[in-house]
Amino acid sequence: MLSLQQKMALQQKLSPQQIQYQKLLQLNTLALEQRIKTELELNPILEETLEDEMELEQIEEEPDKESSSDDEEEEEQFDNSEDEFDLEDFMNDSEYEQEFERLNKNNDEEKVYPVAMQRKSMRDSLIDQLHMLDLTEEEMILGENIIGALDKDGYFKEDLEKFVNDLKLFEGIEVSMEDAEKVLKKIQTLEPVGIAARNLQECLLIQIRNSSYDPYYSYIAEKILSEHFDDFINKRFENIQKNLNLSTETLKSALALIQKLNPKPGEGNIDSEQINQITPDFIIEKVDDNYIVTLNDRAVPSVTISKTYLEMLENNKRKRKIPKREKEAHKFLREKFESAKWFIASLQQRRQTLMKIMQAILEKQYEFFENGPKYLKPMIYKDIADEIGMDISTISRVVNGKYVQSPQGIHELKYFFSEGLSTDDGNEISNKHIKELIKEICENEPKDKPYSDDKIAAILQEKGIHIARRTVAKYREQLKIPVARLRKKII
């Protein structure tokens, strides 16, 4: 049987303003710029403050205090009990005006950080080169489709025959397999040479055959890649030397030539454009013996409350009797005013929070900024949260997807957070420090007898760092360092 019950309970619920603040908090500089532009389009109460206007307002004389107070007394009689906020505060008080106009701007001296000019992606460049070739219309379309199908490393991994058949079936373009092979080979000789290869072996062979290296060593390198490729990729140099009857010096020269080739012609560039480079959200500079943190928000539009709409609100407020249509307009403006007020306040709060967290990271990782990656200390979100009195989730939102530029380079904020291991002397070191040590050990190992993971673990234990072999293997893979067998070189 159904029944009705009443229940009283306390619940924690985020207000719309808190939700807005949290969403703004997790945006990086570029995303924030777009978010502000969107808000400017949606809310007529908000307007962008131009730098020229800000400079003019700074040199204006302050309004006469007596006349200002007389105006306030005269306007008090029109006070509307329904208004939750006093509009005069925003219209007559110069301090409020300046605050709102510069709420999300940095008061430090403006600095210009040059950005590289935009350029075409590699895929666009390849299509431009393709159009310079002597091809039929059908072959040109096939070539454009092949370039469009390249993977992130610049390889053409499709089955060419199936690719040609699909083109015929879906687009009605018919090209013979013989002509398709010719088109593919022409694309493979475009800049960068070796692009659109179907595998690593073909990629390297294309580069060798189209190179201007020494003809003899190019011939030896081509023989190695075409006839002994399996031995080459597995570093079985003794087999290659024996089968081709080569001297050690000749083998070394041929292998050195192969190492100059690019195994991934399109890596990181096939679709990327210069405009998509990382824009740091913070800039840390060393001035004398101190580090200065700057929020890199110069490109972010500065927003303020529109004086025109504020005056409209004020005029409606003074009227004894407001027509129905004007009441609706007044209600709309009030809602947009509230939204604009909270949006500007959220921008200010976001800025303060970001600066607090970055300053805390700087203090915790001072040795890193002073001396480099080897001095990175173990640190977790809770350490920063306790330091500045904020929740761990707030720290997580701030560090996600944001970058800092410092004398040590550009790093994602997540980089500074890592677990640690205890050493024999009782200190704790970051796992990133351990990775740096593994990288250093591999760089200084004997080239003809590289260290195994067990040997690397033993070397670290001699330094007082107790680490398992499987952990060394995991860190080595994260550093993209191959196994010992593949690091072997001929001396």
Provide the fold topology:
Blueprint (H helix, E strand, L loop, with lengths): L15 H10 L3 H14 L3 E3 L2 H9 L5 H12 L11 H5 L1 H8 L20 H9 L6 H12 L11 H12 L5 H12 L11 H10 L5 H13 L1 H5 L3 H8 L3 H12 L22 E6 L2 E6 L7 E3 L1 H12 L5 H41 L1 H6 L9 H8 L3 H8 L3 E4 L2 E4 L7 E3 L5 E3 H14 L8 H10 L6 H10 L5 H4 L4
Parallel strand pairs: 2-5
Antiparallel strand pairs: 1-4, 2-3, 5-6, 7-8
Helix pairs in contact: 1-17, 7-8, 8-10, 11-12, 12-15, 16-17, 17-19, 19-20, 22-23
Low-confidence stretches: 52-118
Instruction: Give helix % range.
Output: 40-55%
Q: Report the structural category.
A: alpha+beta
How many β-strand runs?
8
Q: How are strands sequenced across the largest beta sheet?
A: 3-2-5-6
Taken from the alpha-carbon principal axes, the silhouette is extended
Please give the count of helices: 24
Whole-angstrom Rg: 33 Å
Main sheet record: 4 strands, mixed
Q: Please give the alpha-carbon distance between the first and last residues.
A: 89 Å
**Mean model confidence by pLDDT:** 80
Q: What is the beta-strand fraction?
A: 5-15%
Please give a structural write-up.
There is one protein chain. This protein is an alpha+beta fold and 491 residues long. Helices cover 54% and strands 7% of the residues. The chain is built from 24 helices and eight strands. The chain has helices at residues 16-25, 29-42, 51-59, 65-76, 88-92, 94-101, 122-130, 137-148, 160-171, 177-188, 200-209, 215-227, 229-233, 237-244, 248-259, 307-318, 324-364, 366-371, 381-388, 392-399, 431-444, 453-462, 469-478, 484-487; strands spanning 46-48, 282-287, 290-295, 303-305, 403-406, 409-412, 420-422, 428-430. A four-stranded mixed sheet has the order 3-2-5-6, covered by helices on one side. A hairpin with a 2-residue loop joins strand 2 (282-287) and strand 3 (290-295). Helix 1 (16-25) crosses helix 17. Residues 52-118 have low confidence and may be disordered.
